[in-house]
Amino acid sequence: MHRFREKSFGMYCILIMFIIFFTLNASSAFSDDQRAKTPQDAELKKLTLSDCVMLALQNNVAIRNAYLDRISQRMFLRVAEDKFMPQPSLTFSTKTTSTYNVDDTRTQASTQDGKFMATLTIPTGGTFNFTWDNPATKADVGTDYRYSSGWNVTFTQPILKNAGIDVATQSVRQARVAEEQYVLDLRDTLANTITTTISNYRDYVSALRNYEIQVKGLETAKQTLEVNKALIDAGRMASTEIIQAQNDVANRELSVITAKNSIESTLLTLLQTLDLDKNTRFLPVEETEKKVTFPPLNEAVSIALKNRSDYIKAVQNRELAELDLAVKKRSLLWDLSLVTGAGRTGTGDTYRRALSDQQVGKSDWNVGLALNIPLRDLATESTYVSAKVALEKANLNLKKLIADIEIDVHNKLRDVDVNYRSYILARQGRELSERKLSIEQEKLRLGRTTNFQVVSFQNDVRNQRTAELQALMTYFNSLTALDQSLGVTLDRWNVAVKREDNEVKLPEEVKKSVTQKQTGR
Length: 521
Description:
The chain is 64% helix and 16% strand.
């Protein structure tokens, strides 16, 4: 009889545990299903990663500022390229003078003048200056105007110092390289914004998934606590052992609060990047796992050297340093210049007669050479030494950058491979833990294990799911980092950058789709 009662009591306890476990699991499943169908969630829009990237390209403040900068940057190039165009100007003046004489009289004179001037710089370093002066002068109040009209042309061509096409066109070449680097900076701004948006989007996805895991963990902890209470009431467990379960519930409640705060934090960070209202709410669409094939190391390095802005800038800077050294070397020469000029001034009592007196055959002309020999010019020599050092540094920096790019690309390729294999292993671990839990639940149904053991296996499943999620996000992020290392982020997202653009050029169907999702229409 005693054995029968002990056996009945044990079966009773197992039955209680079994009922509590499945009741709580059923209520948990019901609450999860109910939570998924709340009207608030049903009203939320869904945005894919591509949608968020396009929104960032349209709305991000850093991108908009970068395109505004392009307006003034293009103007800088126009100014530099205008160097070899004629620079004309017109000057008009009028003046009246009153002079006190020794015989207590005054002489009043007046002069009106109109002058046209033009300067033209040619690519050899020479300069043309043209002046056409047309003054009209009245010597006193009672006299008539006297008119004159004169033109003058001078030409100066350096022969040694500051001579040559390289010297004259240096500023233009520098401006054109600067323009190319401005476009590269814009590409970097777009690529960095895309990368930041991707990272923020995945952080938001991870935060949502982590919150779900923590909520289920709290429910499991509460189930364990209820089971412990039932065991204590049945006399199968000491009352002091419930402290561990209570502590676990408290810790998991804190984890839920932290996870919920992480959702808000990551969402606000993403909205800030997208430049959307802070009260905007949407649900992300999780990415699907895919294995990406990547090129061999040598080919990948070649792609990086073709697309990376830091390498392109380094090559351009070295070319500019070579040009600057050539210019500074020529500046060490003597200053020998060819100087020529021609002109003629006609006068008359009318302006027409003054103009008719300006015959080319009557013009004056001159031609000569001017030589300036500096006896002591350390400043010029110092600029030459500085240019020589700058070129050596540019060569060293370029060589080091190539080595750094090779290492960076190698690391990124290895990260992609390792992270993908880590994800596959994490997925296998999650599948095995789920199979192990299923077996343990079947054993519980047959009364061959305890509820505590099942809950432990459930915790293992959640941990494996978390590990799988982290491994997947790490793999995705390594792919994004590889794109940035190769300099193909914009190509990956089909974003074209042209010098004349004042905004990101997106296909109309893409703009329409993103706008509809943003406004909810």
